Amino acid sequence: MAECVAKERKILVAVDEGEESMYALSWCLNNILVSQNSKDTLILLYAKPPRPVYTGIDGTGYMFSPDIMATMDRYTNELAESVMEKAKRLCKEVHLLDVKVETRVVCGDPRDVICQAAEKLGVDLVVLGSHGYGLIKRAFLGSVSNHCAQKAECPVLIVKRPKSIAHDK
Amino acid sequence: MAECVAKERKILVAVDEGEESMYALSWCLNNILVSQNSKDTLILLYAKPPRPVYTGIDGTGYMFSPDIMATMDRYTNELAESVMEKAKRLCKEVHLLDVKVETRVVCGDPRDVICQAAEKLGVDLVVLGSHGYGLIKRAFLGSVSNHCAQKAECPVLIVKRPKSIAHDK
After folding, report:
1. φ and ψ at B67, to 5 degrees?
2. Which pLDDT band, with edges at 50, 70 and 90, does A1 fall under?
3. Structurally, how many domains does chain A consist of?
4. Which structural domain, as residue segments, surrounds residue B37?
5. Site from B156, B165, B167 to mutate, A interface, most A CB atoms within 10 angstroms
6. A5 is a domain residue
7. Which residues of A touch B153 (CB under 8 A)?
8. ipTM
């Protein structure tokens, strides 16, 4: 049997504006990271929706006025920032002194963003909620968790928010 | 954010005769159970293929002679036993003194067996390989891990055997 102990693990948690991804992060912090006596790196990854671009009859891409684009960009950036702040607060609450927390915001379809980041960074585990990916939930068909479980080369942990909690909200 | 620390967790690992499920077990032992200072229960679950039964023209179920059925039963029982022995050896190697190890052999489609056991036993985590389920791999279409990730109410960890290891075999 191959040795698969990772003393300094890289764990990627996909976060978004939904409560489910925060629950997934919390579960990971409390069940996987909390008592490991190792110097793990926790990578919080947020997939930002790409700018909507439509192609006109003459082949040029256009859609919204620069003003609207700027407003949308500001909104998505603020959203990314607020998600990251919330995620980092959760990490602090668990007091994981030895764990390094990194944040990454990448533009694109979360399915690709998560799998590509996992591969590029050589992570040992990907953690994600089973639903969610908020803003772009309807834009990208197919389940992000399904896709990642199939495509990612590393173990994938899919955390479902218990119904009892989901119903409280 | 809801509290999700489980001090005495129940972790169900689906094992079969494939190397991938043993790798999944090993990963779980080394990454989730090993350093938890808690009294976890590890449940090793083996889904045994159901007896093949065909329906004759007169509506009665039949297929093989009693001798062949007995031989098949003996074979599947021996297989289940050998898988469990291998899994228990792996657990012993990791020296998890505080972890209780239980074994369960249940007859049926692994997709149902795993989800039903997870619900019935109230487990905190289901761990399984992304492929496999050996003997009945071809008999049951659809991915076991996909199905469980969608149906199980608890977190599901899908462990893929790294290509580098898979190629060694």
Report:
1. -60, -45
2. very low
3. 1
4. 10-50+79-166
5. B156
6. no
7. 160, 162-163
8. 0.81
